[in-house]
């Protein structure tokens, strides 16, 4: 397993990191290669403690489950996701990502490992072993998260299907996705979305990965439908009201794991003390209404500090400190958007960057904490964190 870990870190994860370092002139920010990149997030979610090594007719391989919600699409469906590490005929390590989607209203709970082990064996060994009592759809992806194969399990029987995720790139606004309430404006909202369908062709859920506006969008409002036409209000139902210059990027919720808090000063007589964390790569994106493109706002390394025990007796654990820091960043993003609106959509990157940082500090001060450009005198940061952002629908753990 150690070999697989090292390969994954130095292979797919490192390659993806190098891709992100490419300038936007070479690989645009809105490129699906950037938006659909998943290796870094997969690395964080791998449950190596639950990994199982197999050696059978399918070869020698490791199945590592991934940490995330069992019901990411509401109560009607359950999803189990794992990564398979295996060696090719040339002894090169490779991976498959396998997802098992329950049929509507059925459950996988408690059976995820057994089901995954059987479907991976069937795929690698080209077998057709049954899985008693299970009705589900199975998706296999390669290391680029591109679909390789799809199967259906029906009353335990296994058969190949054309089930897949449908990827739609830059779908122009239409009644299916978006309706404008101001027909006099020339405003278009474009999306990169993933539509989830099961093997029967039934719509399961829509993930909005990326969106931007083109045209004269000042003052127009719209309604974005997050369910297929005719669908009821189930797990993925409902609607979201948008304003044209609002940041609606669903992956901008910062994860608590971005903040590596540790105690640097111990409390004295039951009060005081200090927890500190440094985080790089905190950022948000603003829509430039003149081009319809996202413009990123990156902050320098921000150093967060909070008392261990406040003067009022309130105790901040490491986990609570992470929650407060995440709250401060998200609060600041909202305030930056309000500031952007007040400018009428005029981009002031320098001013918004400063405002962004000030508002993070403002929220931290409400908890007797700080967010500054240096950790403070005699404060040593053991490990810098890197800002990570939740997946659409699945979010952060």
Which tags fit this structure?
397 residues, 7-stranded antiparallel β-sheet, 6 helices, globular
Describe this entry's structure for a reader.
With 397 residues, the protein is α+β, with helices and mostly antiparallel strands. The protein contains six helices and 20 strands. The chain has helices spanning 2-20, 32-35, 39-45, 112-125, 318-342, 349-365, and strands at 52-56, 59-65, 79-87, 93-102, 136-141, 147-154, 157-161, 165-171, 178-180, 187-197, 203-215, 222-225, 239-242, 262-265, 274-280, 283-288, 293-298, 302-306, 370-372, 384-386. It has a seven-stranded antiparallel beta sheet, covered by helices on one side. Strands 14, 15, 18, 19 and 20 form a five-stranded mixed beta sheet that branches. Strands 8-10-11 form a three-stranded antiparallel beta sheet, with no helix packed on it. α5 packs antiparallel against α6 (349-365). The longest helix is centred in the C-terminal third of the chain and has 25 residues, at 318-342. It is globular, with a radius of gyration of 23 Å.
Which parts are unreliable, with pLDDT below 50 for 5 consecutive residues or more?
163-185, 217-251
Average pLDDT reading: 74
Q: What Rg, in angstroms, do the CA atoms define?
A: 23 Å
3D shape? globular
Distance between the first and last residues' Cα: 24 Å
Estimate percent helicity: 10-25%
In DSSP terms (H or I, runs of 4 or more residues), the helix count works out at 6
């Amino acid at each position: 397993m150690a070999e697989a870990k090292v390969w994954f870190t130095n292979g797919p994860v490192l390659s993806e990191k190098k891709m992100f370092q490419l300038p936007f002139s070479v690989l645009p920010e809105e490129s699906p290669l950037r938006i659909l990149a998943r290796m870094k997030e997969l690395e964080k979610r791998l449950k190596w403690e639950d990994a199982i090594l197999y050696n059978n007719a399918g070869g020698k391989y490791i199945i590592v489950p991934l940490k995330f919600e069992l019901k990411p699409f509401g109560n009607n469906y359950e999803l189990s996701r794992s990564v398979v590490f295996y060696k090719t005929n040339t002894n090169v390590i490779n991976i498959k990502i396998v997802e098992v989607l329950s049929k509507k209203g059925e459950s996988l709970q408690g059976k995820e490992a057994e089901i995954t082990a059987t479907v991976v064996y069937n795929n690698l060994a080209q077998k057709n072993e049954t899985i008693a009592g299970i009705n589900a759809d199975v998706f296999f992806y390669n290391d680029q998260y591109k679909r390789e194969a799809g199967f259906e399990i029906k009353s335990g029987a296994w058969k190949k299907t054309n089930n897949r995720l449908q990827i739609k790139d830059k779908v122009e606004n239409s009644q299916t996705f978006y309706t404008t309430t101001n027909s006099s404006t020339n405003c278009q909202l474009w999306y990169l979305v993933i539509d989830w369908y099961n093997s029967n062709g039934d719509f399961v859920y829509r993930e909005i990965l990326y969106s931007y506006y083109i045209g004269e969008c000042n003052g127009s409002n719209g309604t974005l439908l997050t369910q297929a036409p005719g669908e009821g209000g189930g797990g993925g139902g409902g609607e979201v009201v948008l304003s044209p210059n609002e940041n609606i990027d669903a992956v901008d919720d910062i994860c608590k794991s971005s903040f590596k808090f540790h105690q640097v000063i111990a409390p004295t007589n039951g009060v005081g003390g200090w927890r500190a964390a440094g985080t790089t790569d905190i950022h948000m994106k603003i829509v430039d209404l003149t081009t319809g493109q996202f413009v990123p706002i990156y902050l320098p390394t921000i150093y967060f500090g909070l008392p261990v025990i406040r003067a009022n007796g309130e105790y901040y654990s490491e986990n609570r400190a992470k929650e407060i820091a995440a709250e401060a960043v998200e609060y600041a993003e909202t305030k930056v958007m309000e500031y952007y609106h007040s400018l009428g959509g005029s981009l002031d990157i320098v001013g918004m960057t400063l405002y962004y940082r000030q508002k993070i500090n403002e929220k931290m001060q409400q908890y007797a904490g700080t967010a500054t450009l240096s950790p403070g005198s005699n404060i040593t940061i053991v490990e810098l964190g890197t800002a990570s952002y939740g997946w659409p629908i699945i979010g952060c753990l």
